[in-house]
Amino acid sequence: MSLVTVPFYQKRHKHFDQSYLQIQRSEGSSPGGPAWVPLEERLGTACAAPGPSVPPRPSAALGTAWPLHPCRYQSLVASYGEAKRERFLRELAEMEENVHLARSQAQDKLDKYAIQEMVEDKLAGDRHSYLERMRRAPEILVRLRSHTVWERMSVKLCFTVQGFPTPVVQWYKDGSLICQAGEPGKYRIESKYGVHTLEINRANFDDTATYSAVATNGYGQVSTNAAVVVRRFHGDEEPFRSVGLPIGLPPSSVLPYMHFDVQFLEKFGVTFRREGETVTLKCTLLVTPELKRVQPRAEWYRDDVLVKESRWAKMFFGEGQASLSFSHLNKDDEGLYTLRIVSRGGVSEHSAFLFVRDADPLVTGAPGAPMDLQCHDANRDYVIVTWKPPNTTTESPVIGYFIDRCEVGTDNWVQCNDAPVKICKYPVTGLFEGRSYVFRVRAVNSAGISRPSRVSEAVAALDPVDLRRLQGSWEPPGPALTECTAPAGDVQVPGPPTNVHVSEISRTYVVLSWDPPAPRGKEPLMYFIEKSVVGSGSWQRVNAQTAVRSPRYAVFDLAEGKPYVFRVLSANKHGLSEPSEITAPIQAQDTIAVPSAPGRVLASRNTRTSVVVQWDRPKHEEDLLGYYVDCCVAGSNAWEPCNHKPIGYNRFVVHGLTTGEQYVFRVKAVNAMGMSENSQESDVIKVQAALTVPSHPYGVTLLNCDGHSMTLGWKVPR
């Protein structure tokens, strides 16, 4: 019997299911042992005919494995399968338990979320209905009050507003939004419990203005305004001006104390733009010496009038540059612009013209927009608005103008006149005392209505006489304030007004002015105006529906060609005064006429693209606003405007012409009544550079000197 060595992996792992290999080897290799029988047959036999078990014979060879009994092997296989099945069932039960637990937890969360969502929906519905009941437009409970303070004092403006949602409040100064970041430390804006406050620190004379507060939410908008008047001491006091009227302060006389040498490296040239566009006029400078803290002063002028920063124009000076930027051009911005750099060493300047053409009309053939809108003689309930007419070349003549007004802080434009006004001046009535307004004008011709003009500066409906009466002036050494009017006295019913006269006459209206009664009493005054046709003997009250609070009034609806007389009555809560003295007979008519045409027009060469045009002034030039110059290519009869804003002098340089082309020119005079007839056309002129006087020679040098004579040399002129 040969010895068989069991492999190491069978010793270590004892794979009983492979023991038949050992049985085969141990029994088959022995010569006297039994023959080899397959394991399946032996297992089948053992299981089919159970009998007395025969113990296996140990192998004679050392290390031979004992044979495994078939039934024991089957029981081991069955027990292993049973253990595996039990483990699988146990894991399956655990998994089912975990799934059930996860489902129950998920269901609890879903139920919780459903209940929470139901509660939130109910609360949201209740909240919405509650908010709907609470929502309302802003309402001002306490309005702003006007203040008069001395210079370098602080002033605080307060008002109270309620509304829901909480209104957003914005502050305006003469219609311009107040920005705290623009002037750090100047303004302080606070809002607490519905009380809104604007504090102006160390007020100066320029802070005299009309301040408005606009409260807005999703359901409406309200505004309130007040006047702030900053007064100077008597010695430094400037002439009084009405709040809201344009200011013309002289330029500062303070000059930098150093001498600077200024050279223009790059200059702005003649510029052409349209209304609504943007433009920047810029010069690059070389300033010597270059100091950070001390610099010369840069000033911009338009037609020799100092330009100030506004919402339309912004200035910059520094880093070797000086610029003037326009965010939205209008014809008001056209003119000759001059940049002056001022220092102790003198003035360095550069000039060029800015042309601003009309924007495309809203209706084909409509005229251009009016320009240079100004407000004058502001009072409690009216103001006089003036403007300049647009130039018309190919369009039909202007037949009138519409004036619109808008309260500051709103966008509600109201047309002031029903029929077009033919003269470039109109008294706007029906203003509310204490409120600020802006105005605009539109021109009308047979084709349609023009675009509106640029909006005017904000003006307050306040009477300067009342402001002076309520204010005082400080006169050293005594601190007492002096009244500007006579004492009120102890009267109750006021006396009649005095000095009733006509301050302005036109074809469509007459402006009456008068002085308040003296004594006037302590109560607020109102005035009533009466008119009468000369010879009729009957008086008709002009303002029966509306009481007049200012000592001026514009009377409309006067019959043409009939003379009228007027009288005024004053009233307060105690009663009505006696009528004033009757005025002299007055007839509504135009006091000025359209100017006559300018005289002879002369054109001369200037540069390759420009021509100098000069003309004689008209014989009748009453209240002249300026001139318009037109040009056309010779023989074409297609006239085009050369300037789009009236110029006040009788000489003009026309730029933007084609070199080598031949042109003719004509001129029109303009005043408040309109434009004159065209002047006679100039002679035909060809555009080309003119012969100029040469510059001086330079570089003079002594070449030789022999004691009796000198030889000089120089360079030819540049």
Automatic annotation (TrEMBL):
Keywords recorded for this protein, A-Z: Coiled coil, Immunoglobulin domain, Repeat
PANTHER family assigned to the protein according to its UniProt record, in alphabetical order: MYOMESIN-2, TITIN
Domain Fibronectin type-III: start-end pairs: 369-463, 496-591, 597-690
Protein location: Cytoplasm, Myofibril, Sarcomere, M line
Gene3D superfamilies for this protein: Immunoglobulins (2.60.40.10)
Protein name as catalogued: Myomesin 2
Record InterPro entries: FN3_dom, FN3_sf, Ig-like_dom, Ig-like_dom_sf, Ig-like_fold, Ig_I-set, Ig_sub, Ig_sub2
Entry's Gene Ontology cellular component terms: M band
